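Notes to self, 50S ribosomal protein L10:
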Amino acid sequence: ITGAPPPLQMRPADRCAVGSSTLLGALCGLILVHSFGSNNGLQSTLSRQVTQVPRGLRMVQQRSSPWVSNALSRQKKEETVSIIKEKMDSSSLVFGMKYNGFSVKQLEDLRKKLPEDTSMRIAMNTLVKRAGEDAGYGAISSACKGDNAWWFVGENIASGVKAYIAFEDACKKAAKADPEAPVPEITGGCMDGEFLDANAVKQLKSLPTRTELLARIAGSIKAVPTKLGRSIKQVPQKMAVGVSKLADGDDNKDLIVGDIFPKADAPAEA
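result:
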């Protein structure tokens, strides 16, 4: 028999099995080296075996990374939408602020100065739109332009708006000394399902705070018993007069109640 033997033909499944066995053996060898000491010859051999992983298997490993990343990304987005929706559910006003040019430290300092029931969060416009549709803030989509830091204001609407105006005024003052200093801008807001532009949002600073509103309500309630007492006080006086007249007419048994009290003048006959 002459000539070289024909090359060995292997099915794809067999090549995959051989590659997996090679990879498993190489990993076991590395564990042994790590456990029992260094061996240059053995390490060199094992390194060559690791690099000889079948190309098809390497491609599968490379393709799996984006799949995992996309799944994690979708999960993170769903969590963000859920958080934004919860904030909207507990807010009376939501509006966006352009934060381009501001440093992380500046935004963190701003967060620390916000009122107790006001918070701020940076989120993608698409996620805010999705959360707004579920929370009754669908009109907020008109403000979803550019990069926004979203303000979530609770019951004390005026306090939250005043906090933004104070921040904007401070930035404008800094911009006079440094023209490159950033100045925030309201992209729009939503309250009671209605869209509000920047001017409408700023006008909400005149609304009474929760404390002021409760004080007004308490003052109104306190005035009600006084007025009611005056009216009730007049009732016994009128009743006493009537009883006195009935007592005076009690001696005459022929009189009736209508005879004691004065009658209205009868209309003149034509």
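- The radius of gyration is 42 Å.
- Residues 210-248 form the longest helix (39 residues).
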